[in-house]
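Entry for pyridoxal-5'-phosphate complex. Fields follow.
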Amino acid sequence: MYQHFYQRFLQANPDKQHFASHSHHYWPDVTREATLAYWDDSASMVDDKWLHIFGQVIPQTQQLIADILNLPAPEQIVFAGNTHELVMRLFSCFDLSKPLNVLSTDSEFYSFQRQATRLAEFDNIELTSVPTEPFASFTERFIAKVKMEQPDMVFCSQVFFNSGYAIADLPAFVLAVAEVTDAMIVIDGYHGFMALPTDLSAIAERVFYLSGSYKYAQGGEGCCFMAVPPGNNQRPWYTGWFAEFGTLAAEKSALVLYSNDGNRFAGATMDYTALYRLHAVLLLFKKQGITVGRIHQYVMQLQQAFLAELSRQQHPLLNQQSLLLYRPDQHGHFFTFKLASTSEVADLAAFLKNNGVITDYRTDRLRFGFGLYHNSDQFDLSCLKRG
Ligand SMILES: Cc1ncc(COP(=O)(O)O)c(C=O)c1O
């Protein structure tokens, strides 16, 4: 139904069923032209390309993202090459020589998890991780812990990368957290953006929302973003000269100046090819009327068809019993199967790969992701009968 947007990736991988969409989505064909457009703009405009990028491409991309997330102020969106850079910039809002209490979960992606764990090796920095399981009581337990700990930073995913479990009502969740703390609240929305319909209008003033282009936004690696609450006046000490845009003409001061918009969290010169690709995909979907709501409906149908195909195989390991699915209406766009061990998962993933079924795994969890480039009538897991 949507496969015509993905001719190049599909043609390049004719015998594969690519179920790692949650990790690295296939790129629509428009991204190829976008990549070339960046080169062409560099050649034709040379130094003046920056006027074009900062005057047109970035504001348009900010607007497209703001429309999807229903954010009131597009200029509050700042770009970076990856989320880790943005996570580090958030940490750098704090004086790390003073006590810092960070409250998070046991299921955050490594960009946060590894950095936070490393920082917590310092005596003054404390990291508390609330288990996501059991899912049924997660939000209640998390909010109670925030209330008790009174942390400086709260960091939580919208959809957890190691299960697919999603916070059902993100605005209500953030407002409930904000009710009990003044802490910085950060949501890692990488598995939510362009997958689950998300309306941030009610919490835009309160939350830092992180996401990027490589997964459901389909623009490839190298373009992540963060929505910064309007009016934010924090001064990250990990700061690049792009964070000064809008103040460059200001009177020279001994103090380091910051932009009044999302750029106060910016770094420095980067390759904007990836932003061109993201811009091209979001524009394509907008023109075609492909909303996140439509994508989500389509993927939920794919997921049902996948489960039906899986149950036909009667596989001893890969089945409804090993599937971590708390509730279909609180789930992201990939399924996670929890097996007995990491090696069992690795062996099964390798077997599937040898049979043209591409998945990915994290420790003892095998993940199958879905996207617009799938057609449910092409799902074929019959290799499992042989394995
Ligand atoms: C929840 C989540 N956040 C962030 C990332 C990417 O992080 P980074 O852009 O720092 O590589 C991923 C990638 O898999 C992820 O699953």
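NOTE: The mean pLDDT is 96.
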